Amino acid sequence: MANTSDIRKGLCIRYNHDIYKIIEFLHVKPGKGPAFVRTKLKSVTTGKVIDNTFSAGHKIDDVRVETHKFQFLYNEGDFYHFMNTEDYTQIRLAKDALDTPELMKEGEIVTVIINSEDNAPLSVEMPPHVILEVTATEPGVKGNTATNATKPATVETGASVNVPLFINEGDKIRIDTEKGQYQERIKE
């Protein structure tokens, strides 16, 4: 058993007869009244995100988890196949267990969170950023750069990302996996 002071991003807890992963939290100490923790929880079974507030000192039932490195092999409809990089065992996960499946290319190394009690995979954590090649985008219009203008671009995984006007087809770009946003162009 843990309490609200142990809450951190990525912690898996048992709540309302399901297992949730904490994706955001904020400790709030108002001027009047008791402190509380505002959280955003994502169900590892359904992928549904809920908001919840815990009062300070509230006991939470944390789930013991292990993390393992897995390599993304391929997707088949709504299922994604991964291989453990240590013992080469393969697992299949539903699309709901992934945070940003559209940014994952074959061969990507991800961290899979596994429940220690029953060895069931709970969720997949992407690396902080990925480098993908732009496959389709409109050419930028010269003289259109007075503001931070962006245009949509399709990357090699099929995802659409807003990029600055100077990005062209064939450029490699770094994308933040948490927000799904362009970070920078990669020079070869």
Mass-distribution shape: flat
- Low-confidence stretches are none
What is the CATH T-level topology of the largest domain? SH3 type barrels
How does the major sheet shape up? Answer: 6 strands, antiparallel
* Content-based structural category: mainly beta
Count the beta strands.
16
Mean pLDDT: 84
Oligomer: single chain
**Helical element count?**
0
How many separate domains make up the residues?
A: 3
How much of the polypeptide forms β-strand, as a percent range?
over 45%
> How far from one another are the termini?
50 Å
Radius of gyration: 20 Å
CATH class of the largest domain: Mainly Beta
Task: Please trace the helix and strand order, writing H or E for each element.
Answer: EEEEEEEEEEEEEEEE
Largest sheet, order of strands side by side?
Answer: 1-6-2-3-4-5
Your description of this structure?
The protein has 188 residues and is mainly β. It has 3 domains: 2-62, SH3 type barrels, CATH 2.30.30; 65-125, Nucleic acid-binding proteins (OB fold (Dihydrolipoamide Acetyltransferase, E2P)); 129-186, Nucleic acid-binding proteins (OB fold (Dihydrolipoamide Acetyltransferase, E2P), Beta Barrel), CATH 2.40.50. Helices cover 0% and strands 54% of the residues. The protein has strands spanning 2-3, 12-15, 18-28, 36-43, 49-55, 59-62, 65-76, 79-84, 90-94, 109-115, 121-125, 129-137, 150-155, 160-164, 172-176, 181-186. The strands form 3 sheets. A 6-stranded antiparallel β-sheet has the order 1-6-2-3-4-5, with no helix packed on it. A 5-stranded antiparallel β-sheet has the order 9-8-7-10-11, with no helix packed on it. Strand 3 (18-28) and strand 4 form a beta hairpin. The N and C termini lie far apart (50 Å). 18% of the residues are buried.
